[in-house]
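dude i think i finally got it to work??
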Amino acid sequence: MRSALLIVLGLVIGILGSVFTFSALHQRTPLPKAVMTVMAYHSSDLHQAVKAQQCDAAAIAAHLARLQSAALDIPGAFKGVEKPFLDASDKLQGAIGSAVTATPATCAALATALQPVDDACDSCHKRFR
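look at this
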């Protein structure tokens, strides 16, 4: 009876230890998802403005600036990634920088400026997602 109790106690302790270990291993920082969520938000607002043909130059500039700021956080958010991912991040940052520099004031100019950004996002998501 005593040995059966010790075996059951050992199993319970082992199971609890395993649960705590797996829980600790699965806890990750939410930063990567947060960066992508912020970028998706600003990109979506820009695309909605183009669809609605309501392109305010100040709002466009603000969204592009925030998109650029979030894109700069990608290397820090995804620590330990491989070089091709960082290269894709640099390509995205360049595309967003070009869009900011272009300072689109009309919906047509915004659509044209967003195309390279969309292409950079799509190529990275197809390759690394």
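Residues 8 and 42 are 55 Å apart (CA to CA).
im so relieved honestly
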